[in-house]
C-alpha cells in the first residue's frame, strides 16, 4: 500500500540520519529490504539475531518463517 511505502521511506530517511529505528513486521522480504540488524521471535522467544544475510541463512528462522524453499537475496 502507499501507506506502507511511505513508512518504509521514513524509516530509511531516519536510519540514514543515524537514528535507531525499531519496527515490527511479519513480511520477511520487507524486513530483509529495510533492516540492517534483525531480531527474530518465535512463540515469544528470541530464536535469532543478526544481519539480514545471517537471518536468511539461519535454520531456525527458515523452519519457523521461511519454509523449506530457498530465499534469494
Automatic annotation (TrEMBL):
Task: List UniProt keywords, sorted A-Z.
Answer: ATP-binding, Nucleotide-binding, Transport
Which InterPro entries does UniProt cross-reference here? ABC_AA/LPS_Transport (IPR051120), BCA_ABC_TP_C (IPR032823), P-loop_NTPase (IPR027417)
> What are the GO MF terms of this UniProt record?
ATP binding; L-isoleucine transmembrane transporter activity; L-phenylalanine transmembrane transporter activity; L-valine transmembrane transporter activity
Query: What Gene3D superfamilies does the database record attribute to this sequence?
Result: P-loop containing nucleotide triphosphate hydrolases
Q: Name one GO biological process term.
A: L-valine import across plasma membrane
Taxonomic classification: Bacteria, Pseudomonadati, Pseudomonadota, Alphaproteobacteria, Rhodospirillales
Membrane-spanning regions, if any? Answer: none
Name of this chain's protein = ABC transporter
- SUPFAM superfamilies, alphabetized: P-loop containing nucleoside triphosphate hydrolases
Keyword Isomerase listed? The answer is: no
GO CC terms, sorted? plasma membrane
Superkingdom, according to UniProt?
Bacteria
Q: Looking at the Swiss-Prot or TrEMBL record, what is one Pfam family this protein matches?
A: BCA_ABC_TP_C
What organism is listed for this UniProt entry? Elstera litoralis
Enumerate the spans annotated as Branched-chain amino acid ATP-binding cassette transporter C-terminal domain. Answer: 45-69
